[in-house]
């Protein structure tokens, strides 16, 4: 690498999104990447983050570090979800500014939008209604991250951007039986049902709620794309008080269709049934991705191909995941 290459800090490189961003940056090969594990650097610790930025000259930051989890985890540990995420983003964003980092990309979540937001959800829906109660603390932390970036841009003239991904899945996902999201949870359940030769599996609710799913490698490509946009181009397609950009496929499917697609990928021959006595959650969550498309990027990995890739990763790491 040449001496002119950018030095990029990827915060959260061991997570699903952070590791995908590292892979994408390595493919491009025009930068030096700095990473730290949570054991090496506790991003919740202000003094530790300050020392890290003191010791490293950094040009750009991808802020993918976060405490994440599914409905059960958000509902069980609300204090940890709001505290940890607020501390991580506050420390990293402020120290990036304090140490002259001009460009930063903050990764948020689609849960920032109101529970009853008009579908598909546009960036303008932010703060237009009540949040989903089960993950409100996490959503508030992510909204704070967006507003931190906007505020530092307005006051200090830095270039801190935010991307809001839809539901992500793929290599490096969390397969915990209680704390995982819907795709890894279904992959694990259906895989185990196949191994046990169970004649059926039952999913919660009616199966009719619709969700959008984006492969994490597409998310990584979109993140690097948005980070590298010319500042003028980026600003034309955003506004000072609406600086975040949705990232998704613009397409959704029902939870039942998702389960059936996963069963097909895994080769499960049993029946996928629903349990209408269990809650469905929000009827639909779909992102409006027209802004990102106008900028010149769209998702490329189809759902079935992406699910096959996710299942392949799961099979390769089964031994490590078995104890989870």
TrEMBL record:
Belongs to the NAD(P)-dependent epimerase/dehydratase family. Fucose synthase subfamily. The active site is at 138 (proton donor/acceptor). NADP(+) binds at residues 12-18, 107-110, 142, 165-168, 181. SUPFAM superfamilies: NAD(P)-binding Rossmann-fold domains. The record marks 109, 111 as: Important for catalytic activity. This is GDP-L-fucose synthase. It is an enzyme of class 1 (oxidoreductase). The keyword Hydrolase does not apply. Keywords: Isomerase, Multifunctional enzyme, NADP, Oxidoreductase. The keyword Lipoprotein does not apply. It comes from Celerinatantimonas yamalensis. Catalyzes the two-step NADP-dependent conversion of GDP-4-dehydro-6-deoxy-D-mannose to GDP-fucose, involving an epimerase and a reductase reaction. It comes from the Bacteria.
């Amino acid at each position: 690498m040449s001496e002119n290459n950018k030095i990029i800090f990827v915060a959260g490189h061991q997570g699903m999104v952070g590791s995908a961003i590292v892979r994408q940056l390595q493919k491009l090969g025009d930068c030096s990447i700095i990473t730290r594990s949570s054991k090496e650097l506790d991003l919740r610790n202000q003094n530790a983050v300050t020392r890290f930025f003191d010791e490293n000259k950094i040009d750009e930051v991808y802020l993918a570090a976060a405490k994440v989890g599914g409905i059960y985890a958000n509902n069980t540990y609300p204090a940890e979800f709001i505290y940890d995420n607020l501390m991580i983003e506050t420390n990293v964003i402020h120290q990036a500014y304090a140490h002259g980092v001009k460009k930063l990309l903050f990764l948020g979540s689609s849960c920032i939008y109101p529970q009853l937001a008009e579908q598909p959800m546009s960036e303008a829906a932010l703060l237009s209604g009540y949040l989903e109660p089960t993950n409100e603390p996490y959503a508030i932390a992510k909204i704070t991250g967006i507003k931190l970036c906007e505020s530092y841009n307005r006051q200090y003239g830095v270039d801190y951007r935010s991307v809001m991904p839809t539901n992500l899945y793929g290599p490096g996902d969390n397969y915990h039986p209680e704390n995982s999201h819907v795709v890894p949870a279904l992959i694990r359940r259906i895989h185990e049902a196949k191994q046990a030769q169970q004649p059926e599996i039952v999913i919660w609710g009616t199966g009719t709620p619709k969700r959008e799913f984006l492969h994490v490698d597409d998310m990584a490509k979109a993140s690097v794309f948005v980070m590298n946009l010319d500042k003028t181009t980026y600003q034309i397609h955003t506004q000072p008080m609406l600086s975040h950009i949705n990232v998704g496929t613009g397409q959704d499917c029902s939870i039942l269709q998702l389960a059936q697609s996963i069963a097909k990928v895994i080769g499960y021959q049993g029946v996928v049934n629903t349990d209408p006595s269990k809650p469905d959650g929000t009827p639909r969550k779909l992102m409006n991705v027209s802004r990102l498309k106008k900028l010149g990027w769209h998702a490329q990995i189809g759902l079935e191909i992406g699910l096959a890739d996710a299942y392949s990763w799961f099979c390769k790491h089964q031994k490590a995941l078995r104890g989870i």
